[in-house]
Amino acid sequence: MDTLLTLPVIQPEAAQAPAKPRKPDWLRVKLPVGQAYANVRKLVDEHKLHTICESGNCPNMGECWGAGTATFMILGNICTRSCSFCAVATGRPTEYDLDEPRRVAEAIKLMGVKHAVITSVNRDELKDRGAGVWYETVVQTKLLSPATTIETLIPDVKANWAALDTMIAGGQEVVSHNMETVGSLYRLVRPQAKYDRSLEQIRRTKEAGRRTKSGIMLGLGETKEEVYQAMDDLVVNGLDILTLGQYLQPTKRHIEVAEFIHPDLFAHYKEEGLRRGLKYVESGPLVRSSYHAERHVNVPI
């Protein structure tokens, strides 16, 4: 009778997932506190306003609200886009309030802010992309607070250039449209947007005589060369002001952070952007598109 030799089965070691980068100390922020913050909180609630500070989980909310400023988000708080980085809710918007421009303008006056930032969700289902509400919000804010300067952070109009013309015609001092990332990552980060189309939107805004601004998140897997190329593309298309900040994953359902960028590299990018022809670069781990926005109104056109 043959003797069978049974050998132990050696299981292959389970493949270990690469360790996620740990959030470094330079990204720690203070919790929002203080009477000024409480006053802004009260005004936002009383006037039933949406702010990107809250919807976007901005790390600077405590600092900005503590100084009595906020970035207002018009046209509701449900976006028609599904960008993989953004904490704003995605779905079919139901809110379309033609009285919203008045309420935003009154809140800005009550807050007494010297510089207001206004942004919005994408409203692709609207024929004019919400341009009428955009225009009226700027106009009514200027009427109630003529000394207040305004930046509008407008969405991708999907080549509806008539809508763009309306959005930027209200008299605001700065018109911003965020690129968000480098060209190679657009399909992953902004699947319903196009890199070249966003560049064209900035170019058309500049050709209309406006002060132009954009923002890019870093830490999504981009290379230095791709950041340099994005800077060059923006300069060629007439960009004046660029903000660079660290991407932070808002929830587990969103795209993960590939890398935490060191402050020294942010400083390098600022120098490089200025060298390549940008007029103003705000660059740092906690920088967001509306951070220190009041400084950008003085950038020469």
From TrEMBL:
It is found in: Cytoplasm. Its EC number is 2.8.1.8. Binds 2 [4Fe-4S] clusters per subunit. One cluster is coordinated with 3 cysteines and an exchangeable S-adenosyl-L-methionine. Pathway: Protein modification; protein lipoylation via endogenous pathway; protein N(6)-(lipoyl)lysine from octanoyl-[acyl-carrier-protein]: step 2/2. Keywords: 4Fe-4S, Cytoplasm, Iron, Iron-sulfur, Metal-binding, S-adenosyl-L-methionine, Transferase. Its cofactor is [4Fe-4S] cluster. It catalyses: [[Fe-S] cluster scaffold protein carrying a second [4Fe-4S](2+) cluster] + N(6)-octanoyl-L-lysyl-[protein] + 2 oxidized [2Fe-2S]-[ferredoxin] + 2 S-adenosyl-L-methionine + 4 H(+) = [[Fe-S] cluster scaffold protein] + N(6)-[(R)-dihydrolipoyl]-L-lysyl-[protein] + 4 Fe(3+) + 2 hydrogen sulfide + 2 5'-deoxyadenosine + 2 L-methionine + 2 reduced [2Fe-2S]-[ferredoxin]. The keyword Acetylation does not apply. GO terms for biological process: protein lipoylation. Residues 65-279 form the Radical SAM core domain. InterPro entries: Aldolase_TIM, Elp3/MiaA/NifB-like_rSAM, LIAS_N, Lipoyl_synth, rSAM, rSAM_sf. GO terms for molecular function: 4 iron, 4 sulfur cluster binding; lipoate synthase activity; metal ion binding. [4Fe-4S] cluster 2 binds at C79, C83, C86. GO terms for cellular component: cytoplasm. It holds the Pfam family Radical_SAM. It comes from the Bacteria. [4Fe-4S] cluster 1 binds at C53, C58, C64, S290. HAMAP family: Lipoyl_synth. Belongs to the radical SAM superfamily. Lipoyl synthase family. This is Lipoyl synthase. It comes from Hymenobacter jeollabukensis. The gene is lipA.
